[in-house]
Design brief:
InterPro entries: NIF_FeS_clus_asmbl_NifU_N. By secondary structure, the protein is α+β, with helices and mostly antiparallel strands. The protein contains four helices and three strands.
């Protein structure tokens, strides 16, 4: 079964599991940078806290109040960006957004000079292509990440 655009797979098992039992939920004692995302239409909120180790993201935690898609997106994002450089996390963010609108991932880069990253478990959100109203739920943690990274020279 092709899960790429199958609208019936909206709540993939991984999404449900990570929403119920997030691995990266919580707060950092002394984060280096933070960012927040809010969706006033549905009430979803997420706060992302990061610790940087030289030029890499070493720790990520999120505090998310929202639907299962938003919660799982925050947790899977936190897992996927840990260990990346801030610029790499920004590239991954653009690729994730491109996947959600079924765009060519390479076209979401800066003219072809960015190295594409494997989305891995984040591909569980591909079925949102058929549920446009839910895309904002999956992108909200990335909005918070973008705000956090706006305080870092990349």
């Amino acid at each position: 079964m092709n899960k790429g655009v199958d609208g019936s797979a909206l709540y993939d098992r991984l999404i449900v599991e990570r929403a119920r039992s997030p691995l990266f939920s919580g707060r950092l004692e002394q984060p280096d940078i933070t960012g927040e995302g809010k969706n006033p239409l549905c009430g979803d909120k997420t706060r992302v806290e990061l610790t940087l180790d030289q030029d890499h993201i070493s720790l990520v935690r999120h505090h998310t109040r929202g639907c299962a898609i938003c919660q799982a997106a925050a947790d899977l994002m936190a897992e996927r960006i840990t260990g990346l450089k801030p610029a790499e996390a920004q590239t991954l963010s653009r690729q994730f957004s491109a996947m959600l609108v079924a765009a060519d991932v390479t076209s979401a880069s800066d003219g072809g000079t960015e190295q594409p990253f494997a989305l891995g478990p984040l591909e569980a959100f591909a079925p949102l292509q058929a549920h446009r109203a839910r895309i904002r739920c999956a992108e909200l943690p990335w909005v918070a990440l973008k705000e956090a990274l706006s305080h870092v020279d990349v």
